[in-house]
């Protein structure tokens, strides 16, 4: 239940897309889960390092900031949240278009899911939420988490 509430809280925060501090994962809201990684990238050089071969594709949409967060459970379940901020809504929608052919779900302005991940965009922010390691029924788990 805590996971569902927390991920819904993340989505509500994303609706405003303001202030880096608001995007911090709060481990105390996740019973037993731990924030194992949190990174913010703000420069073109940092984007190149983190995106590697995908840099040109992503940078073409006017990236301004990338935030990556990783949550790990005691059972070694992992949720990775990737947030890509762009100069405008068209940039975020452009990043999302690569995932549009997957199953559409009602999240953000447009959202989709496929086994192991959920993606969507809202405003100037494109988001990937990825389930890794030992998550049976990964997309079902993520969709339940997002939909409360």
Keywords, separated by commas or semicolons:
148 residues, alpha+beta, Protein Transport Mog1p, Chain A, 31% helix, disordered N terminus
The CATH class name reads: Alpha Beta
**CATH-derived architecture:** 3-Layer(aba) Sandwich
* CATH topology type: Protein Transport Mog1p, Chain A
Name the structural class. Answer: alpha+beta
Structural write-up:
There is one protein chain. This protein is 31% helix and 33% strand. With 148 residues, the protein is an alpha+beta fold. α1 (2-16) packs across α5. Mean pLDDT is 74; it is low at 1-6 and 11-25.
Set out the fold topology.
Elements: H1 2-16, E1 34-41, H2 44-51, H3 55-59, E2 63-72, E3 78-86, H4 89-96, E4 103-105, E5 110-114, E6 117-122, E7 125-132, H5 138-147
Antiparallel strand pairs: 1-2, 2-3, 3-7, 4-5, 5-6, 6-7
Structure summary:
With 148 residues, the protein is an alpha+beta fold. The protein has five helices and seven strands; from the N terminus they run H-E-H-H-E-E-H-E-E-E-E-H. Strands 1-2-3-7-6-5-4 form a seven-stranded antiparallel β-sheet, with helices on both faces.
